[in-house]
Amino acid sequence: MAEAAPGKEAEFRSTNQTAFVVGHTGRTGMALVEELVNRNIFQKVVLIGRRNVDKYQGEKYNMLEQKIVDFEKLEDYADEFKGHSVGFACLGAPKGTEVYQKSNHDYIVKVAELAKAGGCSHFVLTSAGDADKDSMMMHKRLKGEVEAECTDMGFQNLSIFRPWLILAQADPQFSRRISRMLLAPIIYFKPTLMSVPAETIGKAMVNTVLEPSKDAVKIIDNKGIHRVANGKECEK
Fold first, then answer.
1. Which of 83, 108, 111, 205 is the most exposed place for a label (fewest CB within 10 A)?
2. Mind listing the pLDDT tens digit for each residue in 49-95?
3. 5 or 134: which leads in pLDDT
4. 133 against 181, higher pLDDT
5. Per-residue pLDDT tens for 152-202?
6. Taking a C-beta distance cutoff of 8 angstroms, is the pair 58, 94 a contact?
7. Which of 199, 182, 156 has its CA nearest to residue 35?
8. How far apart are CA 229 and CA 41, in angstroms?
9. What contacts 137, CB < 8 A, 6 or more positions away?
10. pLDDT, tens digit, for every residue of 199-209?
């Protein structure tokens, strides 16, 4: 998969910007962090979460800084969101969990509010392929509501990623493993239609930061994620 032109990475790197990531312990978040470390376009990346991740030790991860927060009291940690030009939100929780609504809506909206107040100009949001704020289905509605509320905040750039089935090497969630089995023929013959590897999303997110859309709000669907990860302009 293609990356943005080396010249763009070098130019961006010279601006000494910083970023934060929430949701870095999930499939997409972990892939994004690895991409950020490998591309090394930020002076510093702050990982904001409930706990430290032991994996991010050693010289390779020197650019990372981990901050522990209580998501129930995010207002108390407003300083952690200040001064970052880019914010990545990869939060989410499986259906049926106690924190489902909070992780898929409440926490993300609060993070976006704190990021905007702290000076973030480009907010990069992981949503869902079926996001729809007017849907009767809770998952679709929550994702759609988050998109709408983040849009209303007026970020200079808001990049909304709408993947369908996110593929990972080892997926602990039973329902996603079943979905992958059922969609196996489509994934094989039409790999960009309804599925996308987490690593591809991470690459596309970084490329979007390097080459932001001329539109203030850019929605990138599943096919678009593949295109952006390959260094191509999203058609949608």
1. 83
2. 999 999 999 999 999 999 999 999 999 999 999 999 999 999 988 77
3. 134
4. 133
5. 999 999 999 999 888 865 545 545 455 555 555 555 555 665 689 999 999
6. no
7. 199
8. 16
9. none
10. 999 999 999 99
> What are the distances in angstroms from CA 94 to CA 12, 71, 166?
35, 17, 13
Cite the beta strand spans of 138-201 per DSSP E. 157-161, 165-167, 195-197
Structure tokens that stand for 98 in this block? 């106690």
Give the Cα separation of 114 and 149 in Å (integer): 13
**167 in Cβ contact with 201 (< 8 Å):** no
Parallel, antiparallel, or unpaired for β 86-89 and 18-22? Answer: parallel
DSSP states along 24-36: TTSHHHHHHHHHH
> How far from each other are the two terminal CA atoms of the chain, in whole angstroms?
20
164, 152 Cβ separation under 8 angstroms = no
> How many other CB atoms sit within 10 Å of the CB of residue 136?
7
Please give the single-letter amino acid code of residue 16: N
Q: How far apart are CA 199 and CA 51, in angstroms?
A: 23
Beta strands in the chain (DSSP E): 18-22, 44-49, 64-68, 86-89, 122-126, 157-161, 165-167, 195-197, 217-220
Once rounded to an integer, what is the mean pLDDT over residues 2-31?
Answer: 89
Q: How far apart are CA 177 and CA 170, in angstroms?
A: 9
Find out whether 235 and 68 touch, Cβ atoms under 8 Å.
Answer: no
Cross-strand pairs, 122:
86, 157
Distance between CA 157 and CA 124 in Å, rounded?
8
